[in-house]
Amino acid sequence: GQTSIGGAILKAVTALQDVNDARKQLLIISDGTETTGPKILDERVQQSIESAKVTIHTISIGEAADDNLSSLSEKTGGMAFFHDESSEEPSVLQEAVGQLTESDSSEDNRLYQVNRQMMTINARSSKTAIVDFDDSIGRDTLFHFFWSSESLNLKRLKLSVKSPARKLYKYRGVRGPIYCNSEYKLCELRVAGEVKPGEWTIIVNNRDKKPLSMTWEVFSHQPANSDSPLTLNTYISRSIVTYPQTVTITASLMKGKRPVIDAMVSTVVTRPAGQPVTIHLHDSGAGPDLMKYDGLYSVTFTQFSGAGRYNVKVIASQDYTNNRNFNSSSEDLTRMIKEKQASLGARYIFDDLPPEGSGINVPEPIKPPSFTNRTMLPRFTRIQSLGMFTVKGYRSFEDAIPPSRIMDLTGRVTSEYGMELTWTAPGDDMESDQASAYTIRVSTSF
User: Fold this and answer.
1) SS3 40
2) Which of 16, 76, 334, 357 has the fewest C-beta atoms lying within 10 Å of its C-beta?
3) H-state helical runs in 225-310
4) Could you tell me which residue, 366 or 94, shows the higher pLDDT?
5) Cβ proximity of 139 and 194 under 8 Å
6) Which long-range contacts (CB under 8 A, 24 or more apart) does 71-77 make?
7) Measuring CA to CA, which residue among 98, 89, 162, 99 is closest to residue 130?
8) 146 near 92, Cβ under 8 Å?
9) What is the CA radius of gyration of the chain?
10) CB neighbour class for 34 (10 Å; exposed up to 12, middle 13-18, buried from 19)
11) Measured between alpha carbons, how far is 412 from 106 in angstroms, rounded to an integer?
12) Which of the 8 DSSP states describes residue 190?
């Protein structure tokens, strides 16, 4: 049939004229390219969007969806999402609506996406998942469960959720407190009021003869008496990537107004070809991260698998490896930012440099910060979807992405004719992989 996304926008904008809300938002879902007018780029449509001051979010379903959808979201300050029709996820719609709900909430009543995972439960077996609640969430909590199977018999599904206080919520058919709808392939648990921080346990028992794939997600509000929420805010540098351009993914992790240090922050990127890739973000002051210990974690994405649409989400949690996760005081942060850590990265020693006083500026390394003023944080998890970006002009045969810049080069004189240089090693493609060689040049004047 005929598709006119611009025509749908005009009708929606007209309907929003009577809405007395400064934050007017529109969600467009489409699986095709525009075939008839009015179209997105028509002047009448663009003027209508601008005059209405509406934020437009888009969900593109399948690779055939119109390329102008993501551009429309970027121009109006909205978010763009992509649903791969071959994906095992039941739908990106729930994730998109959840993310839009979180971003549209006021700061005092913000709905945080605590976690979202997919699990496969074998036939006649059960599986357990743990959700960590810290003290900055726990009011009016919402659990969602989705599945894609057409043949799931709810009578053969045993679903329960246990709170930190060991209160058990079970699916008991129409009696609740977990309510399920086979038509919408959805189960829901609403926990009103405030609950104590700690571990929530999700238990799914599949008593059917077939395996069950299920996705669960958890949302919760900030408690009424909490003035220092633990927040994750994410950013993506561009929505349209023309190869060999790259994409910088940035996450801000804060406890109130103080940065959270040494967290485990990762991005999961779903690609048009191949498996999803997981990459760690760093707050190291190297690569795209401009300042160390400021709570901003960054990474440059270069693992392209082809032209097409890429979905991005970021997961932040406590670093269970070194357990040094904490939030810094403003005084300690000021001191840390002024210091440079000389013990990181690649190290090369040269024995043929001019002696000290030859005109080369060689700063002495400064000891790493001691982190004496810190507050340990409890176990936590936050997740946020960034939406999608689109790659155009990809060429797999060309190594066109350079290494990242060295941002923290330091040196010290080790002998009359020797010098030690220290820096954080870049990768072959920005921070990815390993650089094959370094070129070091020496000058006695600048």
Assistant:
1) coil
2) 357
3) none
4) 94
5) yes
6) 71/239, 71/240, 72/28, 72/40, 73/239, 73/387, 74/239, 74/240, 76/49
7) 162
8) no
9) 25
10) buried
11) 51
12) E
Identify the three-state secondary structure at position 171: strand
In Å, how far are 136, 139, 188, 258 from 108, measured between CA atoms?
A: 11, 12, 24, 17
CA–CA gap between residue 311 and residue 325 (Å, rounded): 28
Answer for the pair 178, 159: CB distance below 8 angstroms, yes or no.
Answer: yes
Q: Which pLDDT tens digit goes with each residue over 281-334?
A: 988 877 788 788 888 999 999 899 999 999 999 999 985 444 344 444 444 433
Q: What is the mean pLDDT of the chain?
A: 80
Contact yes or no for 420/412 (Cβ under 8 A): yes
Interatomic CA distance for residues 166 and 163, integer angstroms = 5
Q: How many residues does the chain have?
A: 446
Of 69-83, 209-223, 297-311, 366-380, where does mean pLDDT reach its minimum?
A: 366-380
Q: Quickly count: other Cβ atoms within 10 Å of residue 260's Cβ.
A: 26
The pLDDT, as a whole number, for residue 375 is 72
Identity at 202, one-letter amino acid code: I
Q: In what order do the strands lie in the sheet containing 240-242?
A: 240-242, 381-392, 308-317, 264-270, 277-280
Q: Rounded to 5 degrees, what angle do the CA atoms 97, 103, 105 make?
A: 100
Token pair belonging to 91 = 């739908």
Which amino acid is it at 109? N
Cβ-based burial of 32 (10 A; exposed 0-12, middle 13-18, buried ≥19): middle
Closest CA to 204 of 314, 257, 141, 128: 128
At 352, the amino acid letter reads: D
Position of tokens 């690609």?
271
The DSSP symbol for 432 reads: B
Which amino acid, residue 7? G
Whether residue 65 contacts residue 87, with contact meaning beta carbons closer than 8 Å, is answered with no
What is d(CA 378, CA 239) in angstroms, rounded to the nearest whole number?
35
Peptide bond into 365 cis (omega under 30): no
DSSP 369: P
- Pairing assessment for the beta strands 212-221 and 198-206 based on DSSP bridges: unpaired
Give Cα separations from 337 to 18, 264, 290, 342, 368 (angstroms): 50, 20, 11, 14, 11
Q: Which of 423, 407, 405 is nearest to 348 (CA)?
A: 423
Q: Which residues pair with 442 in a beta bridge?
A: none
